[in-house]
Amino acid sequence: MRSLRLSPFIFLLLLCGATSAFAAEKPNIIFVMADDLGYGDLGCFGQQKIATPNLDEMAQEGMRLTNFYAGCTVCAPSRCVLMTGLHTGHCYIRGNAKDNLRPTDVTVAKVLKEAGYQTALIGKWGLGHEGSTGVPTRQGFDYFYGYLDQTHAHNYYPTFLMRNEERVPLRNVPLKEGPWGQGIAKEKIDYSHDLCMEEALKWIDGAAKKDAPFFLYLALTLPHANNEAGKAGMEVPEYGDYADKDWPEPQKGHAAMISRIDRDLGRLFAKLKADGIDDNTLVIFTSDNGPHREGGNDPDFADSNGPLQGIKRSLHEGGIRVPTIVRWPGHVKAGSESDFAGAFWDVMPTLAAVAGVSDKVPSDIDGISFLPTIEGKGNQPQHDYLYWAFYEGGGAQAVRQGDWKAIQQPINTPVRLYNLKNDLGEEHDLAADNPEKVAEMSKLMAAAYSPSESWKFPQPKPKKNNAKGAK
């Protein structure tokens, strides 16, 4: 029997075909993050006043993560945690400032590029400014469209957005405009969220035609307020179904923003189906922190934090626990939910595991992969603890270990202790009855925090000596 011999050319063609087929088997990944969306702002997480049918359907077709946390209680550090897998005890950008990621920082996008992924960020970045090493196109993203600066992102009718590293002028005319593009428009024509969604859908179309999987980080700005607009900060082109409600104007705007997110998630899933890639696309939806009280918005009006205490800037559950949905047809069980206690620092190792490049993840990150949870396969590793630090407003830190949660906010106050299993709303401080647990949790917080020249907790003020005769 004659042996089959292949020419080097034919062998190369077959090898390339096999490599291409392997790449095609890797799922596309879309990570959608809303801005200041509360745990209770979606129908599938208990919302009663605001309609979110598409996200509710996403939950029905996928999995709700009911115990999932943001990286921080405000924007920039939460996004830094998401991108680098390091919690705010020692990540590089730990607060809202004008800092830029460094060339040495490893991001989710850099890791996925190692797996052959096309990468794009559309929306709000907040981790690098024009001309710096922190811009998305220097941090692993092939393509970027949206806002670099988080203050610029307050403005829904800006005079420009960024495409890669260039400014794209818009038709809006400013009434007031700050140095970063923040401000108020007197002529409102181009709504930034709509532009970003159109860009995202167009990018998906193009990426779907290429012989490589893609990763899209879709960082929406809704329902954040335009802080510079004061009580009129819930900027949205129209109130839609809420126009005739007997509600305060900011609440109509807030609800319309959330329903606009929902509308556009429906458009995104329709695009995946139209392009024939729905079954091979993992979509994760979440929020960067809890709900806000800015731009005239009242988070209590629609019960935005649901059963949780606290909002944005608090390390109580309402400031950091976020509504999270995972959908991946054929991999994630429809209509399921999980109480796995995870956080943004788990995203990098999870997506790396999905892409088959876990070996490219830095060994010193804080995250663990929750792929076993979403696929329902294998044993899910658990965190020893979860930790958050917040450096504004007197400073704060919190740690969760199992059902126990300890908080110091402000930082120079006694540790408060809660049992989340019995007290999800953190209403009953158990510190006085559990001194040993307080000591244990305090040690965890001390171990999790690494000193930083840029990010320091406020120091306690020295006590005045009021004794008689003191000089």
UniProtKB/TrEMBL annotation:
Keywords: Signal. The lineage of its organism: Bacteria, Pseudomonadati, Planctomycetota, Planctomycetia, Pirellulales. InterPro entries: Alkaline_phosphatase_core_sf, GAG_Ulvan_Degrading_Sulfatases, Sulfatase_N. Residues 450-471 are annotated as: Disordered. Residues 461-471 have a biased composition (Basic residues). This is N-acetylgalactosamine-6-sulfatase. Residues 1-23 form the signal peptide. Residues 27-357 form the Sulfatase N-terminal domain.
